[in-house]
Amino acid sequence: MARIVSIHSFRGGTGKSNTAANLSALLSKHGQRVGVIDTDIQSPGIHVLFGLEPNSMKNTLNDYLWGDCTIAESAYDVTVPDFKTGEGAVYLVPSKSSAEDIARVLREGYDVRLLRSGLQDLVKAYNLDYVLIDTHPGLNEETLLALAMSNLLLLVLRPDQQDFQGTAVVLDLARKLRVPKILMLINRVLASVDVEDLKRQVESIYSNEIGAVLPNCEEMMQLGSSDLFAVRYPDHPLSQEMDRLVRQIVAIG
């Protein structure tokens, strides 16, 4: 049975989509078959990291939710051939990024229950081991559904007081929804910060396990979401820390 992993943050700008995209590529490197669903319909963008142009996306999650295609027809093979192992693969279900389509979502909404059935259909269609859900920041109906469906929640935050307060709300909700496993991921940590001290502080505040501490780096800024960092810089400490997190995710089962 496929494992459902939600990557979520209380605020935007935490690096959530970058994290989801790179973890999916690293999972494929470990021989896993992965689906990635961009449920951040109001502000989509993960397709950019995989090099998908809007005019090349015939079908998207929006089209599935509006009944115009199946979920499998909205998935794109974005596997990096030289980066995968064995049967490893990555399939992305993007959301439309045009102003017209975003406005339609905001105006008309959609039946979020279709996300659950669509996820199951996607797993069957592509024989997936994992589904990574790139959520919309904050809390809304589809976020609640994603958390409720998850076997694992990766809660992304920066070492920032606003993030600290908002994350507490999400963490409390995830516990009430009885998400089986929650790992916190501290992102964009400056080189001057004592990582072990930061981990102790955050674990003390939230009484929750830290999955990874990802360093802030100039190379990520220079890349500007034009590629997958772990593929471009496989030996970088940031990539190595993400790979360590992937090993932990696989070990959880």
UniProtKB/TrEMBL annotation:
InterPro entries: AAA_dom, DNA_Partitioning_ATPase, P-loop_NTPase. Signal peptide: none annotated. Transmembrane segments: none annotated. It comes from the Bacteria. Residues 3-176 form the AAA domain. PANTHER family: P-LOOP CONTAINING NUCLEOSIDE TRIPHOSPHATE HYDROLASE, PARA FAMILY PROTEIN CT_582. This is MinD/ParA family protein. It comes from Thermoleptolyngbya sichuanensis A183. The lineage of its organism: Bacteria, Bacillati, Cyanobacteriota, Cyanophyceae, Oculatellales.
